[in-house]
C-alpha cells in the first residue's frame, strides 16, 4: 500500500497554491498530470481507493514547507547555493550536491573545485575514493531562483588526471584543436525521452498491463487521449529557458508517452554542456511529479518507435557556397568509421536500429536526401541550396553528447582515410544511393 500512496503524496507536496515568480519550479500545473494518472483506473479495489483518498497531508505544514522553498534570501545575504552536477559511473546517471558560496559568481573559474566519494558512484575504489570536481559551465538555477546556480562539472583524480568516465575532457581537447576551432562546428541535438508510470515501468498514459491504440495520432498530437505529459514538457521548456540553456523547441513523439526537446545550434563543447544540464533539469522535474524518466533507446519492444538523439551537424565550410561537396566528403569519412561511431552511440542501440520505425540497420551505413530510414539524412533545403548540414540519425537517446559531438568533429575534420579506403567507400556509397 505504501507504494501506491508514495507517488501521489510526493506530487501533492510539490504543488504550489500561491503565485510564485518564474524562478520557482514548484508549479501548480501538475494538477492535470495528477488527474490523468488517477483516471487510469489502475486501482480497481474500492478499499484501496478509500485508503488513498483518506490520507491527506497537513495543509498548514505543506504551506510552511512551500513558503520556505520559495523563500527569497537575497535581501538578507549575499551567499548563494551552487548545485554541483556530474555524471556517475554508469555514464548516464546524473549526480549532484549543493554548497554555499560567499557571493554570486559569473564564470566557472571563480568557483572552487570540490570532491565526492567515487566509491559510491562506481568511479573509484573504496581505499582511494576521492574524486575531484572541476567546474566547467554555469547555468541559472530554475528551482531555487535568485543568484543560485547549477554547475556542470567533470571529474578528475587528485593528481589531475581525468577519470575513465570523464568524456568531456577528450571532447574539449578535440574542440580546442585549431583546425576544429576554425571550422566553428554547430550542433543541433534532438533528445527523445520516455515518461514512465512509477512502480509499473509502463509509459505514461498507457493502460497498466495493456496497450493504447497503434501509433499514428500521437506524434505532435493534441488531446487527452493522445498527449500524455505535456505539463512536464512545458515546465521543462520554461525551466531551460530560465537557466540559459539553448533549447530551441519541443514536441510530442511517435510513441505515446514519449517526448523530445531540441538543443542548439550550439558551438563545440557547449552542446554537451547544455544537453547534460537540460537532462538534469528534466530529471528534477519528473522527480517532483513522481513520474520516472527513461532514456532507454527501446523502452517498449514490438511495433513501437524507439528513442534516439539525432544529431544535426555542420561546419563553416558546409555552410558556405560549395558546402554540399564538403558534406559528401564528411559522409564518406563517417561511412568508413561506422563501427567506431556505433560503438560510442549508446547502450542498447541494437534494439532500436533495426531498419524499422524510421531507423537504418545498425549493421550497415547509408545516407540519403530526406530519407529518415538512413544512417545520415540530408535535408531537401540543403540539397537545393548546395550547402547546409547533415543529420546523424544513429545516436541513441542515452548517448553521451560529449562523445557524439567530439567524434563527429574528429571523424570529419581531423581523421584522414587512406586513398584506397576512400575510393572503395565512395564506390559503395554511390551504389547504394
Commentary on this structure:
Helix 5 (167-175) packs parallel to helix 13 (401-414), helix 7 packs across helix 8 (269-289) and helix 8 packs antiparallel against helix 13 (401-414). Residues 1-54 have low confidence and may be disordered. Strand 4 (130-140) and strand 5 form a beta hairpin. The protein has 3 domains: 1-71, no CATH class; 80-162, Ubiquitin-like (UB roll), CATH 3.10.20; 166-433, Creatine Kinase, Chain A, domain 2. It has helices at residues 2-13, 31-38, 46-54, 59-69, 167-175, 178-183, 230-243, 269-289, 316-319, 323-336, 338-343, 380-385, 401-414, 419-432; strands at 80-87, 94-101, 114-117, 130-140, 149-156, 186-197, 202-203, 247-252, 258-267, 292-294, 309-314, 367-369, 376-378, 390-392. The strands form 2 sheets. Strands 6, 7, 8, 9, 10, 11, 12, 13 and 14 form a 9-stranded mixed β-sheet that branches. The chain has a 5-stranded mixed β-sheet with strand order 2-1-5-4-3, covered by helices on one side. It is globular, with a radius of gyration of 23 Å. By secondary structure, it is an alpha+beta fold.
What would the keywords be for this entry?
433 residues; alpha+beta; Ubiquitin-like (UB roll); Creatine Kinase, Chain A, domain 2; 3 domains; five-stranded mixed sheet; 34% helix; globular; disordered N terminus
Q: How far apart lie the N and C ends? A: 58 Å
Structural class: alpha+beta
Number of helices: 14
Beta-strand residue fraction:
15-25%
- Most strands sheet: 9 strands, mixed
Uncertain regions spanning at least 5 consecutive residues = 1-54
CATH second-level architecture of the largest domain: 2-Layer Sandwich
Number of strands: 14
Give helix and strand order, one letter per element, not per position: HHHHEEEEEHHEEHEEHEEHHHEEHEHH
CATH topology of the largest domain: Creatine Kinase, Chain A, domain 2
At the fourth level of CATH, the homologous superfamily of the largest domain is Glutamine synthetase/guanido kinase, catalytic domain
Tally of domains = 3
As a whole number of angstroms, the C-alpha radius of gyration is: 23 Å
Quick one: CATH class of the largest domain?
Answer: Alpha Beta
Report mean pLDDT, rounded to a whole number. Answer: 88
Which bin fits the share of residues in helices? Answer: 25-40%
Approximate shape: globular
EC number: 6.3.1.2
InterPro entries: Gln_synt_N, Gln_synt_N_sf, Gln_synth/guanido_kin_cat_dom, Gln_synth_cat_dom, Gln_synth_gly_rich_site, Gln_synth_N_conserv_site, Glutamine_Synthetase
Subunit structure: Homooctamer.
Catalytic activity: L-glutamate + NH4(+) + ATP = L-glutamine + ADP + phosphate + H(+)
Amino acid at each position: 500500500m505504501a507504494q501506491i500512496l508514495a507517488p501521489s503524496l510526493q506530487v501533492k507536496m510539490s504543488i504550489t497554491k500561491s503565485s510564485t515568480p518564474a524562478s520557482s519550479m514548484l508549479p501548480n500545473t501538475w494538477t492535470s498530470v495528477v488527474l490523468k494518472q488517477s483516471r487510469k483506473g489502475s486501482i480497481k479495489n474500492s478499499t484501496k481507493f478509500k485508503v488513498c483518498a483518506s490520507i491527506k497531508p497537513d495543509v498548514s505544514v505543506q504551506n510552511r514547507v512551500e513558503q520556505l522553498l520559495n523563500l527569497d534570501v537575497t535581501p538578507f545575504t549575499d551567499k548563494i547555493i551552487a548545485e554541483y552536477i556530474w555524471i556517475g559511473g554508469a555514464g548516464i546517471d546524473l549526480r549532484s550536491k549543493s554548497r554555499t558560496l560567499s557571493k554570486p559568481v559569473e564564470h566557472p573559474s571563480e568557483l572552487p573545485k570540490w570532491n565526492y566519494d567515487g566509491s559510491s558512484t562506481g568511479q573509484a575504489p573504496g581505499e582511494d575514493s576521492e574524486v575531484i570536481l572541476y567546474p566547467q559551465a554555469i547555468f541559472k538555477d530554475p528551482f531555487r531562483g535568485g543568484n543560485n546556480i547549477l554547475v556542470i562539472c567533470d571529474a578528475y583524480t587528485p593528481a589531475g588526471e581525468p577519470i575513465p568516465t570523464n568524456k568531456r575532457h577528450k571532447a574539449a581537447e578535440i574542440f580546442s584543436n585549431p583546425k576544429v576551432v576554425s571550422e566553428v562546428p554547430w550542433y543541433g541535438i534532438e533528445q527523445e525521452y520516455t515518461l514512465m508510470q512509477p512502480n509499473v515501468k509502463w509509459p505514461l498514459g498507457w493502460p497498466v498491463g495493456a496497450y493504447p491504440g497503434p501509433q499514428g495520432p500521437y506524434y505532435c498530437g493534441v488531446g487527452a487521449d493522445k498527449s500524455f505529459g505535456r505539463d512536464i514538457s512545458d515546465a521543462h521548456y520554461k525551466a531551460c529557458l530560465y537557466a540559459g540553456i539553448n533549447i530551441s523547441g519541443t514536441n510530442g513523439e511517435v510513441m505515446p508517452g514519449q517526448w523530445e526537446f531540441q538543443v542548439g545550434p550550439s558551438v563545440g563543447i557547449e552542446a554537451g554542456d547544455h544537453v547534460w544540464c537540460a537532462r538534469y533539469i528534466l530529471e528534477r522535474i519528473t522527480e517532483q511529479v513522481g513520474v520516472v524518466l527513461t532514456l532507454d533507446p527501446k523502452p517498449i519492444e514490438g511495433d513501437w518507435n524507439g528513442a534516439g538523439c539525432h544529431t544535426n551537424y555542420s561546419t563553416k565550410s558546409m555552410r558556405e557556397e560549395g558546402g554540399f561537396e564538403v558534406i559528401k566528403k564528411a559522409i564518406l569519412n563517417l561511412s568508413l568509421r561506422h563501427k567506431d561511431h556505433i560503438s560510442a552511440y549508446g547502450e542498447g542501440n541494437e534494439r532500436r536500429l533495426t531498419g524499422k520505425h524510421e531507423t537504418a540497420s545498425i549493421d550497415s551505413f547509408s545516407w540519403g536526401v530526406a530519407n529518415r530510414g538512413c544512417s545520415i539524412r540530408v535535408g531537401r533545403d540543403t540539397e537545393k541550396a548546395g550547402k547546409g548540414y547533415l543529420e546523424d540519425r544513429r545516436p541513441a537517446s542515452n548517448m553521451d553528447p560529449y562523445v557524439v559531438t567530439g567524434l563527429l568533429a574528429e571523424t570529419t575534420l581531423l581523421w584522414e582515410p587512406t586513398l584506397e579506403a576512400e575510393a572503395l567507400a565512395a564506390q559503395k556509397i554511390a551504389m547504394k544511393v
